[in-house]
Amino acid sequence: MNKDIDEKIDEIIKYIKESDSFKNYLKAKEILDKREDLKNNIAKIKQLQKEIIKRPSKNLKNELNELITNLNNDITYNEYNKYLIEVNNMLAILENRLNKYFNDVFN
Predict the structure, then answer these.
(1) Which long-range contacts (CB under 8 A, 24 or more apart) does 28-33 make?
(2) Which of 78, 80, 99, 100 can bridge 28 by disulfide, Cβ–Cβ 3.0-4.6 Å?
(3) 66-76: pLDDT as tens digits
(4) What DSSP line would sit under 23-41, residue for residue?
């Protein structure tokens, strides 16, 4: 790739890494990773979601809803999720702007 492009990409990456959202996301992820109860809850939710697809059941859906409610009531998870959404939004905005620019150039 062109050296100028590489430098600009590095600037964007640096900007994202130095953003408060990204730093807060990393801190929240570190805390979440230490919470075995949360990790187990998330794993159980994923397992139940797969199971429900294979074998729909009202009991499984109720169990899934209860686990999701517990997860959504956890402050650590909410902080993590909030910052994850912010970082993903930053990346989506970047992607959309690049797509719009190249769409305008080529069309």
Answers:
(1) 28/76, 28/79, 28/80, 28/82, 28/83, 28/84, 29/80, 29/84, 31/76, 31/79, 31/80, 32/76, 32/77, 32/80
(2) 80
(3) 999 999 999 99
(4) HHHHHHHHHHHH-HHHHHH
